[in-house]
Amino acid sequence: MQSPKPPRRRSVRTAVVALVGAACLAASAGSATAIVGGEDSTQRYSFMASIPVSATGMPDGVCGASLIDRQWVLTAAHCLDPGVGVTPQGTVRIGSEHRKSGGTVRTIERTVIHPGYVNGHNLKANKDDVALVKLDRPVAQKPIRIAERPGRPGTPTRLLGFGTTIDTPMVFAERLQQLETRRGAEEECAPGYADETRLCTISRVPDAMACHGDSGGPQLQRGKGGRWELIGVTSGPGAPGVPCSQGPGLYSSAPAYADWIRDTLGRR
User: CA-to-CA distance for 34 and 40, rounded, in angstroms?
Assistant: First the structure.
């Protein structure tokens, strides 16, 4: 089957459908830039979490996550998918600006992958690419609120992550990175990629977007009072066959899964 032709966009990074190379989703190691074209975080994000993972070609990998309850984080389903070769290392770090130090570390008690999850294996978009991770005990950090709905196309958003700093090789950021983006219209991603559960995302910075290791991390928008609220979970590229820095990104809509999240947490 012939893959759809990717739209011509000037910026972006594939997320962790490439996280394990073909399995799902830098300048130099000393570079300060990451999220491919991002910048060091400019404020503290108490809800930002990271999950150490190993995968083919990525023994020292990472996935992002968001603290949405004192004892639960929301991430991408493919970050927990043994079928694509990803193995979480059993802990979650919450509230740190650094990938390997600081914040609060908790042991993973259990994981819940959305029952509709299907991995697209880089040929098409992942379906229902969300999962929840329960921590062994609560943390002191403040969770982020899930937005009632994503903003309309054009709404400014922000991405966070510890992913690789260039398309290749995989050199992960040690300092948390952020990138200014916007909600894209469905047609700005490849046909069949974006819909009511998958948000097309466009960088506002040339040659920049989420990449390997950013999967599961948050996409934010400003809510009432200017507070950050969660609208997206890094899922993968918004078009097939494009480098991270050259195509749109695709984000699972957190508001679209709010009922499933509430039901899962209710069963604790």
Answer: 8
